[in-house]
Amino acid sequence: MHEDTAAGYDAVAEAYAERLFDELDGKPFDRAFLAAFVQAAPPGEILDLGCGPGHVARFIGQAGRRVTGIDLSPAMVAQARRRVAAATFRTGDLCALDVASGSQAAVVAFYSLIHLAPAEIAVALREMHRVLVPGGRVALAFHAGDEVRHVDELWGVKTSLDFRFLSPDVVAGELRAAGLEVLECTLRPPYAPAVEAQTERCYIVAERIR
Known about the structure:
Distance between the termini: 31 Å
Helix content: 25-40%
Oligomer: single chain
Strand content: 25-35%
CATH architecture: 3-Layer(aba) Sandwich
Strand order of the largest sheet: 3-2-1-4-5-9-8
CATH class: Alpha Beta
Order of helices and strands: HHEHEHEEHEEEHEE
Number of helices: 6
């Protein structure tokens, strides 16, 4: 399944980067959420998991933090390296991070869990817990709901990707089970159609407590 996701994003990486690299410019809530998260995180490196073309990593870096982006898709990693010189990027899997335990101040995963099977979400959250320092924080963003949307084309490019909408309550429960205390859970309606897909979004901040 992860190979299929990587291949699906490899196919659209260039088109994705061209259209969405600057998307945070039109998303004031997302910018404020990330800025507050970065400010509250303890000192140290921040991981951007499912980094895509590096737009979130760029924002984190511009806020003065050292950041490493990890993505399944080699083509997305290539786009990120081309576009964000001030961060480090490499391929990797959310469910098996090649990152030392207790080494990260914070983890950001924007629209990354949505490509995992339900049973894999708990695995990914345990990995986030493992790599965090005590008191380290997690920021998640995902489509809220209970459906799976499959796409065979994005921006005129053939691909094959599944987008799984997630229940905020279920994700919050999985975070607690992984040893992460939920500090904040916010829902927002979509921005205008020109900015993003018309789905409700959920943003969660959690902290490693054990």
